[in-house]
Amino acid sequence: MPHPAVGRRLHDDCRDGGGQEPDPRRSRPHHVGTPPGEPVRFPFARLPVDAPFTVGGCSAINAMVYLCGHRDDYDTWARQGTSGWAFHDVLPYFRRMESVPHGDPRFRGTTGPMRPSPAHDPNPLSAVFLAAAAAVGHPITPDFIQGVEMARAVVADGAFDGWRGAELHPGGETTGADDLEQFVRRATGTYCHPVGTCAMGSGDDAVVTPDLRVRGVENLRVIDASVMPRIVSVNTNVPTIMIAEQGAELIRGRTSSTSHEFAKDRQGRSLVDYFVALASRHRSCA
């Protein structure tokens, strides 16, 4: 039960249709969320969207959202008994899977297949939002998140004067903490990002061990979002790819804590090269 990124590492030669080039919408995405040509149905708008037909499906572009989560997300996993998954353990895998040449080298990678970056032609409201956030006291960082009251404070700043309309949700009449909590409970959902049904850990109630092996079953691992012992504080796409990166290394018998060099086979090939060759032999026999 692997995440597609496991296949990305164990078989780096995947292409749509058994060797064809990926759908161009993967490299030039505009919208994601529903089948191509179908509108997104919100209570107040209908927007055309595209979804990628490619390996990994919508995870290939993930609505152009790229968030790793907070350090404490992973340190909490470790405190709860999931050894090997603290922030310092998972950071090498986050770095390995991305290429951010101008990022902070302590936290960002430079040789990975994913290339997250700011939008080349951002919506002007994005700049307005950042300016307003800075004006009300929030530091500008690459990963910026907020709650209802925080969002209201940002939008109330003068930077939004030329853009602001009436508040649609939850509505200006919703003010007290209890009312806001009820709105959040009523208006939010999982957005199809459930986790934890095969939670890893060391206790009796853990489904998989910290090395992702199913307890009581030989030769079976689970490598996807279901192993998270607790949901992270951000969109689950990138953390799940990190799990796949570490899971691929666990399959090969290596972890970031045992070596700074990733696994190679007896002929000196990298993990990716090994499984590309294995997959090629499999296709030639099919």
List the helices and strands in order.
Answer: HHHEEHHHHHHH
Count the DSSP helices: 10
Q: State the strand order across the main sheet.
A: 1-2
Q: What is the mean predicted local confidence, pLDDT?
A: 76
Main beta-sheet annotation: 2 strands, antiparallel
Report Rg.
21 Å
Calculate the terminal CA-CA distance, rounded to whole Å: 23 Å
Question: Would you tell me the structural class of the helices and strands?
Answer: mainly alpha
Oligomer: single chain
**Strand segment tally:** 2
Helix fraction, binned, reads 25-40%
Q: Indicate the proportion of strand residues.
A: under 5%
| Low-confidence blocks of residues | 13-37, 257-266
Label the overall shape. globular
Task: Characterise this structure.
- The protein has 286 residues and is mainly alpha-helical.
- 34% of the residues lie in helices and 2% in strands.
- It has 10 helices and 2 strands, in the order H-H-H-E-E-H-H-H-H-H-H-H.
- The protein has helices at residues 4-10, 16-19, 24-27, 71-79, 87-96, 124-135, 148-156, 177-187, 237-251, 271-285, and strands at 39-41, 46-48.
- The protein has a two-stranded antiparallel ribbon.
- Helix 1 (4-10) crosses helix 9 (237-251), helix 5 packs across helix 9 and helix 6 (124-135) packs across helix 7 (148-156).
- The longest helix is centred in the last third of the chain and has 15 residues, at 237-251.
